[in-house]
Structure formats: C-alpha cells, structure tokens
Amino acid sequence: MPEKAKGNYITEDDVDNWGLAISATAEFAIEKVNIGEDKIEVDLDIPTGSKIKFSSTGVLPGGLETDIIYYAIRISTTIIQIASSPVNAAAVPPVPIDITSQGVGTHTIDVGEGETLADRQAVIDRVEAQVERITKDYFYPKTFHEFLDGNGRDRLFLPIRQKILSVNHVAVNAIALSTTEITGDKIISGVAGEYTVTLTISTTEDYYKNYYLGIYDKSESVNNLWGCLILSNTAPEEGKSVFTLEKPLKATLEAVDTVSIITNWAWDEDCIYRNPKGITHEPGTLMEPSEFFLNGYFPKGQRNIEIKGTIGHYTCPEAIKNACIILARDENDSTLYEHYEFEKESMGRVYSYDRGGEEYLSGIIECDRYLRRYVNRTPILVA
After folding, report:
1. Residue 380: which pLDDT band, with cuts at 50, 70 and 90?
2. What ranges do the domains of the chain cover?
3. How far apart are CA 197 and CA 190, in angstroms?
C-alpha cells in the first residue's frame, strides 16, 4: 500500500473527492532515450493518449519539462513517444515532441493526472493551517517554550492564548527547581494509550498526588514535550512506584526519554503559580539555598524564568475534523458548498453593519457552523 497523506486532524482517506491520482510510475536511465527516433523505453505498457509527467534527479531530456502534462504515443509494450496534446497523440501519423538530448541523471515517468501524495498533503496542510488561523488554537498537544520576566509574586501569566495542558520544565536563572528527573532502560516504563507510568523511585503512597509528570520524548524533534496531572502513585514495591495520570500517554517511553516529576508547580487555564506550601525537596534532605530566599515567590528580573510545556487540546474534536474535511473537499471542488461574502454597509447615523475579520471565518456556511464554537476569544495575558 502506498503511503497516505496525513495531518494533525485529518488524513487523505477522510476526503472523498481527490482528483485522479498517479496510476503507475517507472524510472528509466538516459540510455533508454533515443534522440534520433524521439522514443523512450520504459517498463510500462502505456496506452496512446494517456496523461504522463516527467521528473529527474538531474536534467530531463531536451524538449521535456517538469510539472507539464504530456500525452503518450504507444509504439510497443515498452516504447513510447511523447505528444504535447491529445490531438497530436491520436493523429495519423502521430506528432511526437522532438527530443534533443538524453538529459542527466535518472528520469521518472508518472502515468495519470499527476495528483501525488505531496499534492494531497499540501491541501491537508493548508486547510489545517486555515482552521488554526481562524480559531487561534491548536487541536493537539503543541510544545511551547517561553522566557518570562519575574514579577516578585507567586503567579506568572503566560502570553499564550491557548489553554495550557501541562508544564514540563520550569527554571529560574537557568537553575531548574524542584524536579526529579529519571531516565534509562528498566528505570522508566509506560505504553502509549495507557494511563500509568512506572518509575524506579522510593516514595510513599500518593506523595506526588496533584503534581505533574513531564515527559521529554527524544524520538521526536517537534512537539516532544508532554505532561499530565498525577492522580495518584503507589507505595514503593521493590523500589518502584506506579503513577496514575489524568490523560493517556502519547508515546511509549524509551531508555533515552526523560521523565520529570514537577513537585511544586501548579497551573490553571490562565497562568502558572508556585504554591508556597509545596514541598520543594525530598524528605530527609537539606533544602538548597535558592529555596530559602525564593520562599514561594518568583524573583524579579527580565526573562529570568524559562517555561516549557504543551498547549492546545489533548484530542481533536470531531467538529474540527469535519471543518477540515469540508475545506479540503471545497478546495478540490468549489461548487460543493454555499459560500458567502459580506461587505460593510452604512446609512449614516441610522444604520451600520460590518461583517469581516474574525467573524468572517472560512466563508463556507456549513464549515463555519463547526468552527464558530471553537474560536478562541481569550484575551492575551501578560505578566
């Protein structure tokens, strides 16, 4: 099976009106190009009149261009000539294109309309980006990385419009505070889709309840931070404790991944704050000097606090998927849905009406029914 185009919200299979895809592909070397007879030998039996396109690792044979649709002239089961139009391909005798050189590198012929995986992926990327622009939100866990000014208080407001899902890393003056980081084979374990993570750590039952488990997934280069509220943890069993999480894991933990227990930070939808009553050290150990003078407050300063975490949604709502499908189908065929346009109307002091900007949404009535409820109108908060 060929690879399918996919995105964050929908896949190629969700859209049912793609154009005709490429039906066959074959590579051919430069010696398969016969300049004298304007013929090309390929490992395909291509009927006369079939749409074909060419590409190359180097330079195409003289007379041919990339991303141009040509028409095949069948000479035999493995030999074709190329026509510039279906009329020239079907003429008696046919009118082939004059091939002036063999080109350079390895050439490829695609048989079909020419809608490739990359073409379909581009449509999916465009409609998903459009949905994010309209809603000003992300419908998957997306990584954020911010540097904030300390405010001398116990609360920081992030300049982020989206809902904060988790905080995976907090550092003041580049010194990480109150996290227990664990990594390595047989030390951490957890499977994608499950709600538990097992750590080799000595602790008491529910010691870390209502704190956070942050995960750094080193197998990913983008959106590789994830975290979740700890609902409970078991008492030690041979030095291991099982942490029960609020949300299922996004990835299976590997030896190279890092798990951090953030023990004195909490959050709500608008900010993160340092709990003055939070335990900032392991039982029986001395507190670090910085923990004395911080005393539950963020020290004042410019960009002296670093925060990493995730924002957006844990799962994509069905309405957002439906909106993306409509936008993709509309791009493939603009006659399927009813579009609207509103311009500013005014009658002096008596009447004024303006529909534009964010209220305009996608311009497709059916799509906007899905999108309107998810438009993020939360004002941007700053420290």
Report:
1. very low
2. 20-114, 117-136+316-383, 141-312
3. 5
